[in-house]
């Protein structure tokens, strides 16, 4: 296999829970057996548990029934119903695959968290609530009072559609001239931008997501003015 020793695989929520509370971990959805088979072939496994697994699957891997209880615009946000559903799903999934972790004798990989080659000690991960205007205002107060503009931070701005243009077709966000970060429209994550390095330059906004509200819409960015490594692991300086 040309020296390769690791495979990566999504964990698709919609396949493992096709109906609410009806879990499926057998046959092609037997994750534990999948990891054991990889171990027998002397392969390591990176399980990408999501819950969002990008565009290769319908709804990004979210079960279709989830749309009966959560508004489309509240997916992948700090919406209470979405967070509770995600926590319940991960509570079912993670105990099942714990025994496959490398440190427990399995083939799955777990290890220290690193940032640009430095190991992070005693770190915690918290959700930053930027859905409500009041939360964004608090972030903006911090940005206005900081001593240096050359540090990561949240930025946001508002725009209004011209009269008579309440329905917008497919369009793109063009970050030309920006540096490096992640863009959101009305709380929906459009993805990363890094126009100078690529690989993507413009960010796609499909009409089906109805990202533009009637009246005022909000563009937010988690902006990093510089980065030591690009997406391919090469030094940027």
Short structural description:
19% of the residues lie in helices and 21% in strands. It is of the alpha+beta class and 237 residues long.
Description:
- The chain is an alpha+beta fold and 237 residues long.
- It folds into 2 domains: 114 residues, TIM Barrel, CATH 3.20.20; 91 residues, Galactose-binding domain-like (Jelly Rolls, Sandwich), CATH 2.60.120.260.
- Helix content is 19%, strand content 21%.
- The protein is built from 4 helices and 10 strands, in the order E-H-H-E-H-E-E-H-E-E-E-E-E-E.
- It has a 4-stranded antiparallel sheet. A two-stranded parallel ribbon has the order 1-2. A two-stranded antiparallel ribbon has the order 3-4.
- A hairpin with a 2-residue loop joins strand 7 and strand 8.
- The longest helix has 18 residues.
- The chain starts with 5 loop residues before the first strand and ends in a 13-residue tail after the last strand.
- 14% of the residues are buried.
- The mean pLDDT is 75.
């Amino acid at each position: 296999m040309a020296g390769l020793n690791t495979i990566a695989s999504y964990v698709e929520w919609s396949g493992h829970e096709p109906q609410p509370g009806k879990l499926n971990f057998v046959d092609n959805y037997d994750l534990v057996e999948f990891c054991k088979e990889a171990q027998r072939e002397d392969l390591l496994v990176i399980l990408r548990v999501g819950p969002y697994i990008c565009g290769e699957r319908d709804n990004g891997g979210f079960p279709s029934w989830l749309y009966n209880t959560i508004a489309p615009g509240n997916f992948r946000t700090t919406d209470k119903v979405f967070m509770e559903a995600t926590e319940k799903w991960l509570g079912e999934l993670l105990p099942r695959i714990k025994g496959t972790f490398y440190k427990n004798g399995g083939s799955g990989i777990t290890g220290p968290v690193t940032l640009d080659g430095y190991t992070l000690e005693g770190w915690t991960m918290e959700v930053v609530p930027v859905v409500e205007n009041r939360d964004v205002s608090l972030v903006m107060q911090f940005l206005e009072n900081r001593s240096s503009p050359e540090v990561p931070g949240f930025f946001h701005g508002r725009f209004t559609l011209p009269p008579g243009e309440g329905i917008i077709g497919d369009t793109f966000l063009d970050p030309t001239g920006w540096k490096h970060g992640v863009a959101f429209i009305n709380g929906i994550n459009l993805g990363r931008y890094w126009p100078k390095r690529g690989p993507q330059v413009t960010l796609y906004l499909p009409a089906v997501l109805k990202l533009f509200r009637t009246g005022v819409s909000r563009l937010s960015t988690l902006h990093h003015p510089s980065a030591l490594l690009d997406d391919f692991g090469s030094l940027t300086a």
